[in-house]
Protein 1
Amino acid sequence: MTLIDVKNHAHPHKNFNAIVVRQTRFKAQKIGRHYTDSTLMSHFLTALSITFPEGERFFVETVRNVRAQIEDAQLQKDISGFIGQESHHARAHEQFNQNVQDSHYHLKKFEQVFAKEMIRLRTLSHRRQLAATVALEHFTALIAGYMLKYPDFMFKGLSENMTNLWLWHAMEEIEHKHVAFDVYQQVFSNLAQRRRSMRTITIGFLTSTAVMTAHLVWQDRQHSLYRPQELLKNIQVMGGFGLMMLRLLPEYLAFYRADFHPSQIDQNDLLKKVKKTWLSTAY
Ligand SMILES: [Fe+2]
Ligand SMILES: [Fe+2]
């Protein structure tokens, strides 16, 4: 992890990448049973995607709840970018999920359980709701960074159309990773709550992602578990997930520091690279 010292900058977010709201190039069309080289990775990405439409709309709401209290003009601009990007992501993943559902998977039950959890979250105070968003946005940025850094692990076998969804989303998550955090700091600036919410969200996020992935693997057991070649590949990918958690641990723990800011995790080179390669050809 490369850490940047932003403490002395009066407006650290001014140094950040512009938040550009882009239309997705992803076309909602029939998605096969699996869309990555390993069936496990495909199920993991689907598990993430299940939570996106509801989750990202919730993120937007939690920021909107307190937006009027933000006086910083640059941050107001960033909030608009954040809302634009997340709204597009929610819509694209809704279409994606519908197509996955059409290819023999049952996602409705998860979506319903998740929607109920979102209703519960909305009964909490604005501070706790936004702290939950801040924690989840940290997870999102970590996973997005990992996708850009290790595409051979996360995206192996992904079609061009699917890359247009996942790479686009990952890139924009990194672009706006500081927005919810800065809003939280300016409005509430409560460290104890930020840490508390991260602990709760960590358990919830890891458990729900693991359970949903496992359910999808089970629904697809004929391909994912009963074929020795696939099983072997999936065991390797399991090891890859262990490695991913180990590699992301320092960045995850950094969140608990009193002086943490998302921009301290330097992902600028990754962004530059993806903009130079994929983005320049896709847009
Ligand atoms: Fe998003
Ligand atoms: Fe986000």
Protein 2
Amino acid sequence: MQPWRPNRRAFLGTLSGLALGSLARRSFAQSSARVVVVGGGFAGATCARELQRTGLEVVLIEASPTYVACPLSNLVLASLRDLRSQEFGFDALRQQGITIVQETAERVEPAARRIFLSDGSDLSYDRLVLAPGIDLRFDALPGYDRAAAENMPHAWKAGPQTELLHAHLREMQDGGTVVMSVPPNPYRCPPGPYERASLIAHYLKTHKPRSKILVLDAKDMFSKQRLFQAAWRKLYPDLLEYVPLAEGGKVVSVDPASKTVTTDFGEYKADVANIIPPQQAGRIAHVAGVADRTGWCPIDPVTFESTLQRNIHVIGDAAIGGAMPKSAFTANAQAKCCAAAVASLIRGEQPPAPKLINTCYSLVAPDYGISVAGIYHPANGLLSEVAGAGGISPLDAPDSFRALEATYAMAWFDTITHEVFG
Ligand SMILES: Cc1cc2nc3c(=O)[nH]c(=O)nc-3n(C[C@H](O)[C@H](O)[C@H](O)COP(=O)(O)OP(=O)(O)OC[C@H]3O[C@@H](n4cnc5c(N)ncnc54)[C@H](O)[C@@H]3O)c2cc1C
């Protein structure tokens, strides 16, 4: 079976009632409704696969031929993993019968239920699922624009930025200072910056022991804080310095030319600077009209349908997930619930309220893992935590327990990437 690739001619053919390709007609005959999914990350790829299994026609629009996964990318920075191990293709999705269009979705007309792509073509949909992930806000931190990211990499989208920050760390002289800036909530992967600080500290300890990492944080509290801070005291006492908001940690501007980072309390000159700027939902969510003034997308927690535009669902990092953190685990869980809800709605049925799980592993060293797990359900219009149902690694666990959790972290990544892309 040839894959059907929508183009302007096919669209005009539909409009005028002329024949589309025979394949397109066949897929319409097989299925009464078409769902278009934008974004082939943990959220979008999962959702497309689940939707296709229900018998719906599914078109996945993904800008890139290869997906580069962020989880475990902090190991790449510490020279403990190759970036190639983070890369995944879409062949398994194609083989499953999903039509994949490698273009950028540029615009949506919600009233007409049409989506417009970068090659000039457009597609109609019965329901649209947006899973575009995040955009970095290059207007939010004075001095930090796209060009600044070349000198002060964010590495918050895995790929060339990860390699750039890794190269900066490798090139730094022993005795240098790494300065890292952590944004206020909400942002992609709440514990991610602290895992990164830990693994950079591990890299310095093993390769450049006279060096230091300074973590400047725009907040006072963070995910798995007590576990991280206990581990830092044990593993990196003289290497890692953490400055919370209350002690002047909030970065207010940067100067990429001199690699200077300024807070309300002072200036820090970095040999390597890692600036993680504030974030928002990916651009298509804004042009589709599903993002609100927060920059993120409000959703119905049962169906993941946008509360701003009918027939458009938003999942993964772009959505306002209530108590659910923005993680790959969350994205995958939301995608499954959203796919089931979309299939129910298309059948004219009311979807049941879902229960979702998130588990987030962090590596403080290659053999030292910690985790947090939560269960969530719709309550008061949001995804809320089911009280008492989650858990966190014990504070006083022995080294063998930490080592076991590190193996769970690696196994989790293999399992989820196999499920989504394998
Ligand atoms: C350093 C780091 C470590 C992390 N560690 C973990 C971890 O240990 N565990 C965990 O669960 N999570 C972790 N995360 C978080 C996780 O990576 C994200 O939460 C997850 O990737 C979100 O998935 P998503 O599908 O919503 O977005 P993404 O993964 O960003 O996927 C979005 C996709 O949409 C495509 N796209 C966007 N706009 C368009 C458009 N207009 N047209 C076509 N395609 C488009 C993009 O090309 C991309 O492929 C980490 C993140 C970072 C940065």
Protein 3
Amino acid sequence: MTRDGRAIVVGSGPNGLAGAILLARAGLRVRVLEAAAEPGGGTRSSQLTLPGLIHDHCSAFHPMAQASPLFRELGLERYGLRWRHQDIEMAHPLDDGTAAAVWRDIDRTVDELGGDGPAWRYTFGALSAGFDDLAQDILRPLPHLPRHPMRLARFGPAALLPASVLVRQWRQPRTRALFGGAAAHAVTSLGAPLSSAVGLTLIAAAHRHGWPVAEGGSRAIATAMIRMLESLGGTVETDTPVTSIAQVDGADIVLLDTAPGAAATILGDRQPPRANRAYRRYRYGPGALKVDLAVRGPIPWANPLCARAGTVHLGGTFDDLADAEAATVRGHLAAAPFVLVGQQYLADRSRSVDGVHPIWAYAHVPHGYPGEDPEPVLRQIERFAPGFRDRIVDIRTRGPAALERDNPNYVGGDIAVGSNAGLRLLFRPGGATLPIGGRTPYDTGVPGVYLCSSATPPGGGVHGMGGANAAAVALARWELSRG
Ligand SMILES: Cc1cc2nc3c(=O)[nH]c(=O)nc-3n(C[C@H](O)[C@H](O)[C@H](O)COP(=O)(O)OP(=O)(O)OC[C@H]3O[C@@H](n4cnc5c(N)ncnc54)[C@H](O)[C@@H]3O)c2cc1C
């Protein structure tokens, strides 16, 4: 179906590509304009260290892509995407040598948690069983009529709690830390309201779908999306930064897969002053210090569960994590920051060469932290895997400034593109575009132009739902305007 409309999407991250595919499928001629030399945004992978090793620049594990109603409907497997699973989704070691693990199989997880098992099942059993229904509601903007009110009613009260309150139901330090590591993905204070939401979601998703990796690197997600877009007649142009609205003039629909600040610059005085001010003042969250390593042989973890886990969370007990996250949010580099380690090669052996493996790691650091020294990350890994340093063959570090150079959406190194403090998690971007008077969080205030990046609901992660939601609003308005 051709509707003779033209659309431009600025940015080729998963949200931009998702929006582009839906617009192309509705019959519009779609061009995606990407600033970087490679498309894909947060789903790029390349040889960052030794020849042949495949490193994910950003996203590595994809529970939300599995749960995303859009990804499930697109069927990207038809365009070459293959998901690969490791034995254990996530492990969390402690200094006493113990560890706890999230297996995809909730029964096994519950068994291994011993006395804490029943409370784990109570919290995650029904949630994970009904996760796909829940995802339909939590991946859409608020407010809307829930499609599955009972599921939402069960999730909501627990999600509203600070992680520091929800965690009280577990007694063992390793169970408490296991939950704390997942909750810390929100990159906010674990004592804040709503700081349980991300942890609940990620663990429920792990039990429902696992945290799989894309075979050949996360770039395979972008490659499959681009293939699908091209099959619908769309195109992607790289090395094409957009800095002015003049570059997108003439399009019926424009989607901006950019940070709000960049959108304000592009839209300039075409944007109503209030919206422009709100976009420029948009509040970003803490940053990341990314370390990619080439490591000979497996990491010598003290606890064997860690050697089978795709993701290993490092930072000690729940209280240690809470202290570290609170310091980070306040703008201080924590003495022992929260570190996430990815061993994607366990699920996808094609990423290693001759027994040398690509290891992905990052620490939470303050917004705009100027350091490029990998030491805070290396220290944490060595703490739980003595002898690790001796196995490092090569290393590449990117602090907040380098992350922002690679992808302008990561302002100050904020990979979530927005502070998750308090209710901001619900009402991005920054409350500036609350759905008042028929407006949606995707409206920029300029007719036909919509924001679709992870600054908009449902926020960070590879799920494409920001792009899908924005495209749905854009298409409905465009149809209406044509009468
Ligand atoms: C270190 C790290 C680890 C992560 N781990 C995970 C994970 O394991 N699982 C997960 O689900 N998510 C993870 N994420 C988050 C995930 O990558 C992002 O949430 C996701 O990519 C956001 O998609 P997006 O389309 O909104 O934006 P992005 O993927 O950031 O893409 C935006 C694109 O727009 C382009 N762009 C911006 N401004 C302009 C402009 N003015 N003109 C032209 N192009 C422009 C950028 O170059 C970029 O290509 C991680 C991110 C990082 C950095």
Protein 4
Amino acid sequence: MPVIVKLTPNISNILGPARAAKAGGADAVSLINTINSIMSVNLDKMAPEPVVDGKGTHGGYCGPAVKPIALNMVAEIARTMDTRGMPISGIGGITTWRDAAEFMALGSGSVQVCTAAMVYGFKIVEDMIDGLSNWMDSQGYATLDDFVGKAVPNVTDWQYLNINHDLKARINQDLCISCGRCHIACEDTSHQAITKEKDGKRYFEVVDSECVGCNLCMIACPVPECITMEAVDTDRPYANWTTHPNNPMAKAAAE
Ligand SMILES: Cc1cc2nc3c(=O)[nH]c(=O)nc-3n(C[C@H](O)[C@H](O)[C@H](O)COP(=O)(O)O)c2cc1C
Ligand code: SF4
Ligand code: SF4
């Protein structure tokens, strides 16, 4: 009887229970279960919702909101030396074929669906199979093994990202409705890189020398595709934070 150990995300490091499952002889791990959460507080009764005879307790967060957390935990297990290679069944917010494909690309050999099936019924699984199958055909993947885990080698720690890979925001003036949200976002909480007027009129333009490519403006813009991020050539070779002159740890290592 194969044993698949289901892992809770209510833990600071998912590798601990994954290692324990492996050491205990598990055939596979599945993750994630639900995330402990209080969704709201009833301010009249001064207790968490749903209020049960004056008291409340936490529930389990699930569905699309937990997908990013689940993907990260799956990736951690798939890429870490001593847990790598353990069969993984990915769970958490899977609603479309694309969600399933993303879990698989990060190393899940199978996936599970709970919330989406509860909301839309089992038919949603057939839709996902259709979509996944069409996408696999379009990519030339004949079997799931052709792409399961394919994104794992491209998951790294932030300090190894290329510090010389530079992006600049680009505003499509034909699509811009001059709402100003990008300006406010960049002005108040990023790098003051978007102007708000030109010749006395509202006009939103990126100042390349100030833009750090954080993409906040793109998220704030209500018009799809109006702001895009463009990679610009810096003529600088790959370098990362581990050797950067501003990194005190790098300095200490060099001394
Ligand atoms: C109403 C409900 C009941 C659940 N009961 C269980 C359970 O008994 N055992 C378990 O391992 N997971 C249980 N789960 C967690 C799901 O199996 C799944 O791990 C989690 O909801 C994340 O997937 P999802 O976003 O597709 O729902 C339950 C989830 C929901 C929403
Ligand atoms: S990418 Fe960031 S820094 Fe650049 S313009 Fe947008 S919000 Fe400002
Ligand atoms: S948020 Fe988008 S639509 Fe609004 S001013 Fe900026 S670029 Fe134009």
